[in-house]
Amino acid sequence: MKADFSSIQSLCLLRLSAIGDVCHAVAMVQAIQRQYPDLAITWVIGKVEYQLVKHMPGIQFVIFDKSQGWRSYGQLRKALAGQRFDVLLHMQVALRATIASLMISAKIKVGFDKARAKEGQWLVTNHGVEPLATPHVLEGFMGFAKAIGVEDLTPRWNIPVPEADTEFAKQVITDDEKVLVICPAASKAERNWLPERYAAVADHAVEKGYRVILCGGPSQLEVDLAANIIKSSHCHIDNMIGKTSLTQLLALLKRASLVIAPDTGPAHMAVTQGTPVIGLYAHSNPGRTGPYSSLDSVVSVYDQVIKQQFPDSSIAWGKRAKGQDLMGLIKVESVKEQFDKIVSQ
User: What's this model's pTM, rounded to 2 decimal places?
Assistant: First the structure.
């Protein structure tokens, strides 16, 4: 029996992490808000990710702090005590999200289709989205909006940024500058490009009249990577690694001319701001996880690596390639070529 969603009054969205996926979820939830402007929406979200989207209007956020271990589930149950939602959109395939969903009371619990509903998700949902053979993650998320009757699935983003953060970004990047922002680090070191190659592209950008800024989080991995890029470079690079909040970074990415990044959250943050991105991919399929509005600008060795690793198999769309040194297959010349192509446009 097909469910009727036209009269829903309350909706809970379960998407805890990560930054890139939360960016995709923003487009989905704002598509829902356009169709159902009076709908009461609660978003159960990770502690870090909340810092990016906390100023979004019309949403009640409930923070799920995974660092609290098992206590986080009790805290979630307490935060939602007495609430029963018309619909839960269970948008995270992870065991902790499956367990978290048990703390959320809802009449209809929408999950992924059977092929994608892993980690026990299919056990805790009673309605599935339409199957998609080769979706980008964003398109997969938009399936949840479609499942509850949303008709306009065109991705648009409006992530509010405090005025002070916008002013901060204006001080860093002035109106008359051409700026390349490099966000060099992914969550896993093996997905990072080599520092000397980032440096070579930075040198190329400076030769073309661009200023180069490194951006990212405060982790030791990112601090060390930035130091090695600067050491390998022959030009001046401004190092802002660890010096911005997420909303400050969002404001900087909006003012950038171009962003270069591997498979990491800031690439998708740049997409939300309409800034072109050169994504660097070896381990994951950029057709699935690449920067959505810049898929034509991706520099990827994923297809060749997958063919080498699985020569006689038909490969699942989301299959990851394995190896510590795969990013080394991405050549400096390929990235320079994409840079020149974008700046000439």
Answer: 0.96
